[in-house]
Design a protein that fits this description.
There is one protein chain. The chain has 260 residues and is α/β, with parallel strands linked by helices. The strands form two sheets. It has an eight-stranded mixed sheet with strand order 1-2-4-3-5-6-10-11, with helices on both faces. Strands 7-9-8 form a three-stranded antiparallel sheet. Helices cover 33% and strands 22% of the residues. The model has no long low-confidence stretch (mean pLDDT 93). The protein folds into two domains: 218 residues, Rossmann fold; 29 residues, no CATH class.
Length: 260
Amino acid sequence: MRHELKIDDRTLSYLDFGGPGRPLLALHGALSEGAHFTDFAASLGEQWRVIAPDQRGHGDSGLASEYSRAGYTADAAALLEHLAPGGPVPVLGFSLGGINAYHLAAARPDLVSALINVDAPVELSRQDGPSFWDFLHDLPYTAATREELLAALGPLAEGTGPFLRPLPDDSGWRLPFNPAATLCTLTGDETSYRDVWLASSCPALLVHGLRSEVLSREQADAMVARRPGTSYAGLDTEHFVPFQDPKGLAEAVRGFLATL
């Protein structure tokens, strides 16, 4: 069920998949929204109640004045405080959401009982030359037809197409993310978050795509070795672990949660 939380006159929209289980906060990746966790929530069964916000600048949530890690972290903390789950909860995050998740664990250990990082690095690449993200500069947020947005998405159309939404006034279609917000997030990133990753002490699981172009095996191994209480699960995927091996991800997460 979809709900809304007002934060400083801004809407934070979130999905609560319900059920009698314990709460688990799930933070989506870039170019995404909370609805991407629909199948994942079902795969965890009744033992866990997945709550998946549309992070600022994504899905049905409003735009923000800035897209710092502190801002993303504050939104997640505000949501957990609003939900008042009765204690800290496990937090899972993929990619952008994974970075935000370990920032939350470091900043608010009172809210996070366990951390699940799905292919989110701590050393971010800053390569010279054209960037993968350059296409966002010219990508429209809305279009008159769904077909126009699919054409603009190019190779991303297959993965993003199912999540395109009609505008409320039937005037066209929109993406599940705002390109300008994504660019602001990327622009504000540091090159290293290693100290933030090491700043929390709760149990953690790193789920790694073995063929990931974002998180190398060398970096993943170092993240596990240097952070006490961190376990590892490697899956035969590229970076997009939740979409390329949803069954493997669910099995890894269920196994980790059972140890808590």
